[in-house]
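# step 3/5: fold
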Amino acid sequence: MSKFKTRLRYYMIGFGLGLVFMFMIFGNRACSWLPENRVKNMIAEKQLIVGDSVWDLMQCQGVDSEDIYRFLNEDGDVDFSDSKTRSYPKEYLFKGDKNNEDLSITFALYDEYSEVIDFDFSQKNCATDKSNTDKMPVPLPASQVRKIIEAKEMRIKEKAQCEMKCYGLTEKQVLAFHTGADVVMAETNPHADPNGYYTMRGKIAGKVYSVTYIDGENRTRISRIKGSTECDCNVED
């Protein structure tokens, strides 16, 4: 029995040190099983939408999609005491700050999607004549998409290679394109099956291009490059 207790003690010490080590390296991301992180993951893994009136008021007070996704990543704290977790949809109140001022954002969790339904920030006098009946996807901030693109090794697919040559672009220019481009929400779907995709628009040598990135399991694949003219690239990838 004494040997078992000794082994158990050493195991618990090692397990505890391992948790500390993972937390030091990965922060809260190493603890996805924690209630707060589970809530963040449940909200973020669904399509995130916002009503027109809520979005108008947020824009008026200087709250944007960067703040929304920042709260869902690490900067927001879920206030479970003021959240409604026994109703449908469940509503979760996130608290944090922006420019050293208190900011709270409330998310509703539905079966098929998540929605930003309320927020509280400054005392700025804002008004809207919209009814919140029209919904739209919360625009993905370019910084968020860049992180997703850069998280994996990038590969240029055969069709995009053909288009790259057609427009006279270099591989270096194409691989760096996302660093200075903006997200095209109408051509972006992070939740597409089997792989989410992102389209970004920007300039190379003064000319406008759109580049589509597929978020694969092991690689980020550049699948299309579109310029002002069409290229004859009938290539099956």
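# step 4/5: annotate
The two ends are 63 Å apart (CA to CA).
# step 5/5: archive (pending)
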